[in-house]
Design goal:
The protein is built from 5 helices and 8 strands, in the order E-E-E-H-E-E-H-H-H-E-E-E-H. The chain is α+β, with helices and mostly antiparallel strands.
Length: 203
Amino acid sequence: YRIICPDKSIRYIQDNAIITLDADGKPDHAIGTFNDITSRKLSEIKLASLAQRLELATKSAKIGIWEWNIKENTLLWDEQSYKLFGLEPRSETNPFNMWATCVHPDDLSIQMELLNHTNQHGMEYASEYRIIWPDQTIHYINSNAITLYDKDGTPMRMIGTNLDVTLRRQAEMLLKRREETLSKANRELERAIRMKDEFLASM
């Protein structure tokens, strides 16, 4: 609880006590301590505020947060991560299995190899891959993560982010197709001009 000091400052107090009983088993007296935990409480409040702002920022940017327990091979997703994969949160299901099911079959083995290589060599994980939603539409995910190790250097956890970059990849593919179409048109034009020049030269 809080107390207000004579100087009007507010302190956080933790009160602990032990009740002793008399011969009849009735409360006799209490022995207790008062601990000033202001520093700890202020740190907790600050941490909670930072966590709230981070959650707001990730929701606004539609960024999913995930954590992979490498030893137990379990994956934790926040609510946004489920949305990025076109899924509803399911507390009874291991997201790692869902992730592996959602990743495009042609990309899954590459992603697993990349994750393992990242963990074993102390590298940051950064990749883009395709996922298949339940409605069979294909989406692109940009994923970044860092690995946390124990004192012996054994990889323990990965903490990362997911971001849907489908619109960007679609725009890139559209631009590539237009460039290919333009290049083909230019080659056809050059061929037509060359044939014209050859025809005129033969007259």
